[in-house]
Design brief:
It is a single chain. By secondary structure, the protein is an alpha/beta fold. It contains 14 helices and 15 strands. The protein folds into two domains: 6-189, Rossmann fold, CATH 3.40.50.1980; 205-351, Rossmann fold, CATH 3.40.50. The strands form four sheets. Strands 10, 11, 12, 13, 14 and 15 form a six-stranded mixed sheet that branches. A five-stranded parallel sheet has the order 7-6-5-8-9, with helices on one face. A two-stranded antiparallel sheet has the order 1-2. Strand 6 (89-91), helix 3 (104-113) and strand 7 form a beta-alpha-beta unit. Its main location: other. This is ABC transporter substrate-binding protein.
């Protein structure tokens, strides 16, 4: 059965892992309200239902527009919100979260739509079937995250379950564009999903074009750490949100990073080969500012060419990590409200010297 551990969450959502647009729904968190459209009018596409979604775990048939939507984890709920649907339930963010166990951009969007905060539940020990069942949802979103047959079958006893398509072997390797469209289809909002994807992709492209040095620059998206004086190098692979985000700016995953073979969204890189992890720049999320100097001064990690050339973005801001490549809302927030892309550009400039 699927278990959502803190370690898995940190690697998948921190650094990695949002936003979004368009018409609104309001849902009650504890008072039984539905996920009904703002102002009382539906924003579902005409003739959107019934709809059937296929996955490796089975078919999911949705007969009519969902009114009580719950998201596993927090990414699924944020994607629904980006499409104008305020979920009635969502897992805690659990890392870098605000006082609501949420993200600031999620809360801002809920307020914009005139909705209520969803009921948040802990997933420290795995999927919280009991709390989900208490909410009596008519749709459960799990398009992003871990899934197995036993969990799928147990969840569908509560409500229809939307998971990632057969095109993806791992729920942590689904590009935000695909998960947005999958959830959009389930909510009857495919046209809205297409609009949101186009809007955010355009914003990323424009942000990259403001820095000419970024175009075709090579990168490594990683997690570098030093624990008890022992260095560790993890490299994120194709399908991970961080890789997707940097590529959307016009950059290219380095040949070294492309050579990493893994069954999931990241693989390990041998410390003995640190000097071979070549790229114009390297990105890594780190737990704290103290870790930055540990990495730069470590005898192994400073052999990484981009570290040696001060061409690294070692980011301890957890909000940046949550916004990077997970959901449309988070991506828009990161582009519009931070200097994160400026830092990427500065690192590239140093790496190309």
């Amino acid at each position: 059965m699927v278990s959502i551990s803190r370690g898995t969450f940190l690697k998948a959502a921190a650094a990695s892992a949002a936003a979004l647009a368009l018409a609104g729904c309001s849902t009650g968190s504890n008072d039984g309200k539905d996920s009904s459209a703002a102002g009382g009018s539906s924003s579902a596409d005409p003739d959107a239902f019934p709809v059937t979604l296929e996955s490796q775990f089975g078919e999911t048939k949705i007969d009519s527009e969902p009114k009580k939507v719950v998201g596993l984890g927090w990414i699924n709920a944020e994607i629904a919100l980006s499409l104008g649907v305020v979920p009635i339930g969502s897992g805690y963010v659990g890392w870098g979260e605000n006082k609501n166990h949420s993200t600031d951009w999620f809360d801002d969007k809920v307020k914009e739509l005139g909705g209520d905060q969803p009921t948040r539940f802990s997933e420290t020990d795995g999927i919280n079937f009991e709390e989900i069942a208490k909410l009596s949802p008519d749709l459960i979103l799990a398009a992003v995250g871990s899934m197995d047959q036993e969990t799928f079958d147990k969840l569908k006893e509560i409500a229809p379950v939307v998971v990632y398509s057969k095109d993806h072997k791992d729920g942590w390797m689904v590009p935000w564009q695909d998960s947005t469209r999958t959830i959009g289809k389930a909510l009857g909002r495919s046209s809205t999903a297409d609009d949101v994807v186009k809007k955010v992709e355009s914003k990323l492209k424009e942000a990259g074009e403001k820095h000419s040095q970024i175009k075709d620059a090579t990168f490594v998206a990683s997690n570098l750490s030093v624990s008890e004086a022992q260095p560790s190098i993890s490299v994120y692979t194709q399908g991970d949100g961080r890789v997707n985000f940097l590529e959307s700016l016009g950059m290219k995953n380095s040949e070294a990073a492309e050579s990493v073979k893994a069954d999931t969204f990241y693989g390990t890189w041998s410390n003995e080969r640190a000097s071979e992890l070549t790229s114009d720049m390297i990105y890594s999320w780190v737990e704290s500012k103290d870790d930055v100097e540990k990495i730069k001064s470590n005898d192994v990690l400073k052999q990484i060419p981009a570290i040696a050339k001060d061409a690294a973005v070692l980011d301890s801001d957890k909000k940046n990590g949550l916004g990077m490549g997970n959901t449309p809302l988070g991506i828009e927030w990161l582009v519009d409200n931070t200097d994160f892309i400026d830092k990427i550009a500065d690192a590239v400039s140093n790496g190309k010297k």
